[in-house]
Amino acid sequence: ERDCAGLALGWRPAQVYIAPELRARQTAEALGLAGETVPDLCDCDYGLWTGKSVRDVSDADPEGFARWLADPLAAPHGGESFGAVLNRIATWFDATGVQPSHSVVVAHPITVRAAIVHVLGAGAGAFQSVDVWPLGAADFTGSTRWHFRSLARLGSVD
Hints:
This protein is an alpha/beta fold. The chain has helices at residues 22-30, 54-60, 62-70, 82-96, 109-120, and strands at 15-18, 36-37, 103-106, 136-142, 146-153. Strand 1 (15-18), helix 1 (22-30) and strand 2 (36-37) form a beta-alpha-beta unit.
């Protein structure tokens, strides 16, 4: 558990989109943000690996874990692949449309990674090249198309 007290963006976004999970809603609240809860911004479905630590998964299924990390379309756990998460997030971003102002997405790191990869047009192969901290803030802007503006670290994760 991390303490979110005292976090602040330092500016007010025009739109706030929040993943449905409790921890995303609590983070938004700690930031003083109210916004739309968006089911499509939910965390990755980890299937059989849900609730297990990375270490436990890699120890129990080293080949599956390695395949999942190496292949953005692999889902050895029976849940979503990185590619599936990217497609879900891309569909939502494209359907939402560009807003002529700053928008904030409060979601899990994997969801924010997918948003960044999509907005940059980098493709599923770039998924492992983007790292997002817990308690990080992604800033997206736009006028005629979405732009990734910045990624800030709001709190300590040590």
